[in-house]
Amino acid sequence: MVLLTVIALAYLYQHSYSIKMTRELMRLETEKKLALERVESINAQLKKLQSFCRLESLYLSGVRSSIPMPAIAGENPAVKYPRFGTLTLANPQE
Amino acid sequence: MKQHGRRGMILLAGFFAAWLGLFGKLAEIQIVKWRYYQNEAKKLHFRRIELLGERGRIYDRKGRVLAHNRSCCSIQILPQYVRDKDTLAAILADFGLGTVRENKELLDRHRRLFWFRRFVDYDTGDSLRRVLTRRRFSNAVLVQDAYEREYPYGEVCADVVGFVGTERGLAGIEWEYDSILRGSPGWIMLQKDALGWSYPYPTLPVKPSVPGADIYLSLDVDIQEICYQALKRGVEQTGAKRGSVLVLDVHTGAILGAVDYPAYAPGRFADYPPERFKLNAVSDQFEPGSSFKMVMCAAALGDSNPERFTSRVYDVSSGYISIGSKKIKDVHPNGVISFDSIFINSSNVGCVLLSFEVNPEVYYLMARRLGFGEKIGIGFPDEGAGRLDKPDKLRNRLRFATVSFGQGVMVTLLQMAAAYLCIANDGVYVKPYLLESVRCDRTVLWEFRHKSAVRQVLDKASAQRLKDILERVVLNGTGKLAKSGRVSVCGKTGTAQKVNPGGGYSNTQSLMSFIGFFPKVESKYVIAVILDEPTRFRFAGSATCPIFREITERLLNLGQVADAVKVFGRDELAAGTFNKSVRR
Known about the structure:
The structure holds 2 protein chains of 2 kinds.
Chain A: H1 2-61, E1 78-81, E2 85-88
Antiparallel strand pairs in A: 1-2
Chain B: H1 2-32, H2 34-45, E1 46-51, E2 58-59, E3 65-77, H3 85-94, H4 100-109, E4 114-121, H5 122-134, E5 141-150, H6 158-161, E6 163-164, E7 169-171, H7 172-176, H8 178-181, E8 186-192, E9 198-200, E10 206-207, E11 214-217, H9 221-238, E12 242-249, E13 255-261, H10 280-283, H11 293-301, H12 307-310, E14 313-315, E15 320-323, E16 326-329, E17 336-338, H13 339-344, H14 348-357, H15 360-369, H16 391-394, H17 397-404, H18 413-424, E18 428-429, E19 435-440, E20 443-447, E21 455-456, H19 460-475, E22 490-499, E23 505-518, E24 525-532, H20 540-543, H21 545-568, H22 570-575, H23 578-583
Parallel strand pairs in B: 2-11
Antiparallel strand pairs in B: 1-8, 2-3, 3-4, 3-5, 6-7, 8-9, 8-10, 11-19, 12-13, 12-24, 14-17, 15-16, 18-21, 19-20, 22-23, 23-24
Helix pairs in contact in B: 3-4, 9-21, 11-15, 11-19, 14-17
């Protein structure tokens, strides 16, 4: 009788422990999903701001970009840059 | 004694009948209705919860997310089951969902199931769900898990990406590829105790939900942003009703930018009129005006003997030409002009003179080969096919004459851009595309097969001649304001009168377009700009060319940075050490 009671109690304990663990697992999974969603959202915002800043700085600097750029293939390569004067940049490494 | 025997028999029969009935009922329960009772028992002991399939994301060509999901909760209330409306109103108000008074009014007003709130923050919704269960309101208030669609680039990409309604996509890519994006739902079983509380258990069956596939578009968000800003400024400065811009990659046909202005915020789509939900650049059909003259030019150059058109001069000094009772005029008198000058000065009369000599069948074939008169088929909702008269109708002199300068023919901006792309690509027609790939996790399910060419429409020499003409349109002709100091631009303006609702053409309302490409040699981008009814300018040269030039300049900056990164490397650029290599 005692043995049967112990087995029954052990089963009940195991049952409740399983429920508790499954609940915990589900909670953690939900938290992970929410955290990943937040990371994704922040990443998207970051990329958006990065490209916005880049575009704005390019827009504001306009043609006065200080970076000596390679000319587009087939075009007149003479491009004016304030820091370097008029450069012929068909191949900028020349 | 006899009476006792009879009574006993009746009792025995009754007893047997009762047992027979009992066994019959048992047989009915166990054999006939076993499935019904099994389901009823399951309902008592288990509870099935639906798991939502997450919707696939939409990305641009560089993997920047254009549409993604956020977990949230939606709350529905069954007012007829609410036993204490005051308490429920107070609980909802405690979670920041309205005031007690507002909630009470809502509960009193509705008699059937209604949406109380949608897209509530997940943490708030989940906490509310627990409190409602504890306070015994869970049978009357349904707090369901849901996904809210987020669009990080808002109205910049709204016309292409579209938006999602309750469950399904309602516009743009979200609508067109809804079946691909939509995931399939799953379910999970929970144990239920005598009090109605539910518990998860590991051995109970689960069907996991399957998320939808991700879609990668050919769009480049940087280019999209540039186009949107330039178009917005253009529409505001010209006083136009609306406008559209398309940017195409010449080599691949990829649609890099497609914007309309005014657009709409996809998160608040209900606040906007439904006509904004389409991409005008792809769906709207219009009479193109002079930008369509390049079809006549291509037809003449594609003729078996093009010299008969190109080696002579055309007298358009009168400034008009009469066909029957109709008079077709030039905007400016042009004198005696060459074949090239007809297009450089955009002479309607010159085009009409050409139409008298060009074979309508050759013209029709050229227009069809340039992609007019049928849908391109980029896989986007409401794509327009345009309208192009068959050769037998073009045999009518007046009709062919009007078509020659872009009236009496219907096109979409995408068709126009694709035709100019063909010229930029040395006469090779490349089909534009928007959908680049469909992926699930890292597996590519479908990918656009890049075709280098669909068909050779013009020979290289004719295409080169057309490019020369289009370059001179920008250098000396009607498109001077599109000229860039940094790159050679080729293009053509178009000012088309709009049709009056009562018939005839309007003198005040027009559609202005500029379609061009750059650089002239090894062209990279085709840009098509259109404005609907600009009020402050009379001609496309003044209204649309500045928008084209702004986009060109900014694309050059963007392209140069990308090229510099390729040459110098990102780290070197960031550190500023690239200067040394230049000085060397």
